[in-house]
Specification:
The structure holds two protein chains of two kinds. Chain A is mainly α. Chain A has helices spanning 21-36, 66-76, 79-189, 192-208, 213-239, 243-256, 261-287, 296-321, 327-355, 361-374, 376-381, 387-431, 438-461, 474-506, 509-513, 517-545, 557-592, 607-626, 639-660, 665-678, 692-712, 718-735, 742-758, 768-777. Chain A contains 24 helices and no strands. The chains are: A mainly alpha, B mainly beta. Chain B: Interacts with two multisubunit tethering complexes: EARP composed of VPS50, VPS51, VPS52 and VPS53 subunits and GARP complex composed of VPS51, VPS52, VPS53 and VPS54 subunits. Interacts with SNAP29.
Chain lengths: 778, 390
């Protein structure tokens, strides 16, 4: 290789390779360093993994063999390429040389400065060694001196220690000797705590050395003073006026003086009782009948701060003082709390009972909340006394009573509505002017009841408000919502409403007549409205407001709806009966009181028939206000005309014609029987449907059947028969439009005329045309 | 077991309201029916029912004096019967047709009759044509009423006063109660009345408008009064044959009510099965839990009023001193649940039923009569009959 001769050339004169070559070279240098440190060449980054690392012809490879490489070059390459590679090689060698030189220059200075530093350190260490040697000798001297001094002082030290011990003992003795006077002083000053502490400190020593006469005397003195102290403490304790904390202090001191705990605890409780009873008395005084009782919130506040607070203090002090008493002591306290708590509850209940009538729920709930909240502290303190449970019970009871009260209120409101309606119904007749319409009354009643229900729900809802302390009790989360509010209040009210309404149907005879028919109608519509919408609305509202978590069975909406529907149906049926009865009575009187044999030839429709039509029209209007029209059998609008002709000419003729000839009585009978065969049986008092036509049909059926029965009981003269004929035709003209199936009216009226003809010894019917004229004139 | 089909008998184009069993007859089943017609001669049909062969035999008696509103038979003498009838003066249509009817008037009369001897015992003649066998009645006496206007014999409606006939000892006693009832100045319009079968027949109960009243015939004084017994007119009443203080009433309010006359404020029981006026109520003579009602809704209903009957369900108790045992009954009753129910509704009629009667001979058989002259004879369902007997 021709690179050799250029080896010496410096980096300065080596021409710089092309820019692209620089990183390549650096990488190469790195690769070598890595090789040196045993890192695998192949892992050098960015290097194309092309040539085999074992390839001896690889210039940069570890196994590079110059001979092989040269051979290969000479063998494979043409001259030009050889020349090129030679140039290339030379350039590379130069570059490498310059690199190497740079590195050497850079590191050389560092070596030199390092050598200097090491040399300097060598000098410093030599100096330090000398100083250390000097220090060691000095220390030895010091030790020697110190040993000598301690040896000299040994004797004195022991004496001083002894003297100090004597001094301490003497001080103790002095304390003991001074003790009686100190105690006396303390007692005089009232520093009982200090006195008890002194006594406590001296007690053991005195006890130990009591065989020595001098100590004996001191002990006796001390005992006398202590006895006095105890007496004074007791005195203070008994006087008791100074509140619970001081008493507790007294008891604590007495205990420290070794007084019997049993007796103290009795006494303590007795005192506490006295105080708490005082509180109770003041509460009772507030309850007193004559002065206006403060509102319930104030009352529970008083009770809470006075009694319950006191009880808390007593309990806390007791438990602190008499913790050593064990379960027996706790039991005593629990019994104490139970008894007084019971009396307190009795008072609270009396107060709450006074509140039952009142309307303000929020105040009551707040009072209950306070009451319940205050009792939680002693409840936690005295779990055994069951105060919290008892309080919860009271709250529950009050809530239940409240529900009952609201139910009563709702009922009263409903009855009040009914009274209003009665008055409104009666008023127009008195005043002679137009009263509010039925529909309006109905809307009023419905909305007023609904608002009452909502108000009650809102009032009751206060019991379950989140911020109220007892709302998370299981009763208020479950039973109160489902059984109390939903079942007891809402369902109970709807049921009682239905019952009240039904009771109007049950009242017999004249008493039933006292109920205005319009009220029956209105109630019926109200119940029907409840069935269709209101019940489900109210119950949904309730369920939403009171998220019922209880699983106990509740009355389903459908049952209530069925009840309401049944009530509505009964009311409407009763309405039909009552109205039917009114018209029946009119018809019956008119038939019974008339002398049909000696009546004159009919000139007019009788006034009573006009009255019947008028009343029926009035009823029609009344029912129309509240109920829908309903379906009637399709028949042409001018059917009155058509049926009239059928009824008066062909049918009537067919009926009466044979009766002129006595020889053929069969025909009449046969005809009527055949006719009956084809007509359906008429159920007179049949249940009605909820529409106007059905109601009117019912009323007209009842009236006409009555007319028929009455006619059958009388005997008619010829003109009597004709009068009946005229009357029936008149009814026929006006009544058909009210009923579902006008055929029914025809049938019944035919029957009436036929019966009248039977009851007439001289049946000469009037000419249909004359009948018509009379009716049209009337 | 199947029940026998009802037997239906038509009065051949006569209207009728009056029906009675032949009370003195205890062997044969026999009913008397009076027709009501203004134009033709009225008749009394004697209906014999042959239970074994299910055949009806009839005999016809003429009753020419007028239409019959009510009929009753003597409980002692088979041949004696009383009718209550209207005699209309305008019974001559042609005459009136020419003269006008200005002076026509209807008179209500009552009379006691004796039927021909051969019919008394119900000799089973072959039923021929009715007109040929029609026989006449022998008039025993008129119950004169000219002084008192209209008259009422044992429950005939439309009377201002009342006369009651009873047959205690085979001879007729006529009680004229008119004077005793005067205080109302004729305002008391009795619609119905019945003799109490108890107390040696000294009590009568009457119905007027909505009120029921009990009378003691010895002192002619009111014993009890049930005001507003029904919402509307009281149509009929009947005494429980076995329990002396119990009676049933029915009226225009479609209800049948059972009363204890010792406590008249509340009915013991109320039935509301009919859909129109109830015209008739009858206790079965021997099994008083069976109550029959007829109504102008054309239905006859047989009810089983076990809870207020003298017989505990399934037991027969002596008819005597039943009322004393009332207190003990609840224990016995508790064994079997009692249910008052409707046994059957009979719908054979097509017109208003104005009369229902139990047979005096067979306690399981009854007849009902509707206005169109149809007489239906029915039996108590056999299952029930055996249940009561066994």
């Amino acid at each position: 290789m021709a690179a050799g001769p250029d080896h010496g050339s410096g980096p300065g004169d080596s021409p710089e390779g092309p820019e692209a070559e620089a990183p390549e070279r650096r990488r190469k240098a790195h690769g070598m360093l890595k090789l040196y440190y045993g890192l695998s060449e192949g892992e050098a980054a960015g290097r194309p993994a092309g040539p085999d690392p074992l390839d001896p012809t690889d210039l940069n490879g570890a196994h590079f063999d110059p001979e092989v490489y040269l051979d290969k070059l000479r063998r494979e390459c043409p001259l030009a390429q050889l020349m090129d590679s030679e140039t290339d090689m030379v350039r590379q060698i130069r570059a490498l040389d310059s690199d190497m030189q740079t590195l050497v220059y850079e590191n050389y200075n560092k070596f030199i400065s390092a050598t200097d530093t090491i040399r300097k350190m060598k000098n410093d260490f030599r100096k330090m060694e000398d100083e250390m040697d000097r220090l060691a000798t000095n220390m030895a001297v010091i030790t020697d001196f110190s040993a000598r001094i301690s040896a000299t002082l040994q004797d004195r030290h022991e004496r001083i220690t002894k003297l100090a011990g004597v001094h301490a003992l003497l001080r103790k003795l002095q304390f003991l000797f001074e003790l009686p006077s100190r105690l006396t002083k303390c007692v005089e000053l009232g520093a009982y705590g200090q006195a008890v502490r002194y006594q406590g400190r001296a007690q053991a020593v005195l006890q130990q050395y009591q065989h020595l006469p001098s100590f004996r005397a001191i002990q006796d003195d001390c005992q006398v003073i202590t006895a006095r102290l105890v007496q004074q403490l007791r005195q203070r304790f008994r006087e008791g006026g100074s509140g619970a904390p001081e008493q507790a202090e007294c008891v604590e001191l007495l205990l420290a003086l070794g007084e019997p705990a049993e007796e103290l605890c009795e006494e303590f409780l007795a005192h506490a009782r006295g105080r708490l009873e005082e509180e109770l008395r003041s509460l009772e005084a507030e309850l007193g009948p004559s002065p206006p009782a403060p509102d319930v919130l104030e009352f529970t506040d008083h009770g809470g701060s006075g009694f319950v607070g006191g009880l808390c203090q007593v309990a806390a002090a007791y438990q602190e003082l008499f913790a050593a008493q064990g379960p027996a002591g706790a039991e005593k306290l629990a019994a104490f709390a139970r008894e007084l708590g019971g009396r307190y509850f009795a008072l609270v209940e009396r107060r709450l009972a006074q509140e039952q009538g009142g309307g303000d729920n929020s105040l009551l709930v707040r009072a209950l909340d306070r009451f319940h909240r205050r009792l939680r502290a002693p409840g936690a303190l005295l779990a055994a006394a069951g105060l919290a449970e008892a309080a919860t019970e009271i709250v529950e009871r009050v809530a239940r009573e409240r529900l009952g009260h609201h139910l009563q209120g709702l009922r009263a409101a409903f009855l009040g509505c009914l009274t209003d309606v009665r008055q409104a119904l009666a008023a127009p007749r008195l005043a002679g002017k137009e009263g509010p319409g039925l529909a309006e009354l109905l809307a009023n009643v419905a909305s007023s009841i609904l608002s009452h229900i909502k108000a009650s729900l809102a009032a009751v809802h206060l019991f379950t408000a989140k911020e109220v302390s007892f709302s998370n009790k299981p009763y208020f989360r479950g039973e109160f919502c489902s059984q109390g509010v939903r079942e007891g209040l809402i369902v109970g009210f709807i049921r009682s409403m239905c019952q009240t309404a039904q009771s109007f149907c049950d009242s017999p005879g004249e008493k039933g007549g006292a109920t205005p028919p319009a009220l029956l109608l209105l109630l019926s519509r109200l119940c029907l409205d409840y069935e269709t919408a209101t019940i489900s609305y109210i119950l949904t509202l309730t369920d939403e407001q009171f998220l019922v978590q209880d699983q106990s069975p509740v009355t389903p909406v459908s049952t209530l709806c069925a009840e309401a529907r049944e009530t509505a149906r009964r009311l409407l049926t009763h309405y039909v009966k009552v109205q039917g009865l009114v018209i029946s009575q009119m018809l019956r009187k008119s038939v019974e009181t008339r002398d049909w044999l000696s009546t004159l030839e009919p000139r007019n429709v009788r006034a009573v028939m006009k009255r019947v039509v008028e009343d029926t029209t009035a009823i029609d209007v009344q029912v129309g206000l509240l109920y829908e029209e309903g379906v009637r059998k399709a028949q042409s609008s001018d059917s009155s005309k058509r049926t009239f002709s059928v009824y008066s000419s062909s049918r009537q003729q067919g009926r009466y014609a044979p009766s002129y000839t006595p020889s053929a009585p069969m025909d009449t009978n046969l005809l009527s029987n055949i006719q009956k065969l084809f007509s359906e049986r008429i159920d007179v008092f049949s249940p009605v449907e909820f529409n106007k036509v059905s109601v009117l049909t019912g009323i007209i059926k009842i009236s006409l059947k009555t007319l028929l029965e009455c006619v059958r009981l009388r005997t008619f003269g010829r003109f009597g028969l004709q009068q009946v004929q005229v009357d029936c035709h008149f009814l026929q003209l006006y009544l058909w439009r009210f009923v579902a199936d006008e055929e029914l009216v025809h049938l019944l009226l035919d029957e009436v005329v036929a019966s009248a003809a039977l009851r007439c010894p001289d049946p000469v019917p009037m000419e249909p045309s004359v009948v018509e004229v009379i009716c049209e004139r009337g | 077991m199947e029940d026998d089909a009802p037997v239906i008998y038509g009065l051949s184009s006569r209207w009728a309201r009056a029906l009675t069993p032949q009370t003195a007859e205890t062997d044969a089943i026999r009913f008397l029916v009076g027709t009501q017609s203004l134009k033709y001669d009225n008749q009394i049909h004697i209906i014999d029912f042959d239970d074994e062969n299910n055949i009806i035999n009839k005999n016809v008696l003429l009753h020419q004096v007028g239409e019959i509103w009510h009929i009753s038979t003597s409980p002692a003498d088979k041949g004696v019967l009383a009718t209550c009838y209207n005699r209309s003066k305008c019974s001559f249509p042609r005459y009136l047709a020419t003269r006008g009817s200005s002076d026509s008037r209807v008179l209500t009369c009552a009379a006691v009759w004796r039927m021909p001897k051969e019919l008394e015992s119900g000799s089973h003649e072959s039923p021929d044509d009715s007109s040929s066998t029609a026989q006449t009645l022998e008039l025993l006496c008129h119950l004169d009423n000219t002084a008192h206007g209209n008259m009422l014999v044992v429950g005939e409606p439309w009377g201002d006063g009342k006369k009651v006939i009873c047959w205690p000892n085979n001879h007729i006693l006529l009680w004229n109660l008119q004077e005793s009832f005067q205080p109302g100045k004729g305002q008391l319009r009795f619609t119905s009345g019945r003799w109490s079968p108890h107390h040696n027949c000294t009590q009568v109960a009457t119905a007027s408008d909505t009120t029921l009243r009990g009378w003691d015939t010895r002192s002619m004084s009111q014993v009890y009064c049930i005001e507003n017994a029904h919402g509307q007119l009281v149509r009929d009443l009947d005494f429980n044959p076995n329990k002396q203080y119990y009676l049933a009433s029915c009226g225009d309010d479609c209800k049948v009510k059972f009363w204890d006359t010792r406590n008249v404020t509340e009915p013991v029981k109320t039935l509301e099965e009919h859909s129109h006026w109830v015209w008739n109520v009858r206790y079965n003579h021997s099994h008083d839990q069976l109550v029959l009602t007829g109504s102008s809704d054309s239905r006859v209903i047989l009810s089983n009023m076990v809870s207020i009957s003298s017989e505990p369900f399934g037991h027969l108790v002596d008819d005597d001193d039943v009322s004393d045992q009332e207190d003990h009954q609840p224990e016995e009753k508790s064994k079997e649940p009692l249910q008052d129910n409707v046994i059957a509704t009979y719908e054979e009629h097509e017109d208003s039923v104005y009369a229902v009667e139990w047979s005096s001979a067979d306690p399981w058989l009854f007849a009902s009569l509707s206005y169109d002259g149809r007489l239906v004879i029915n039996r108590v369902p056999r299952a029930l009959k055996y249940h009561i007997l066994l």
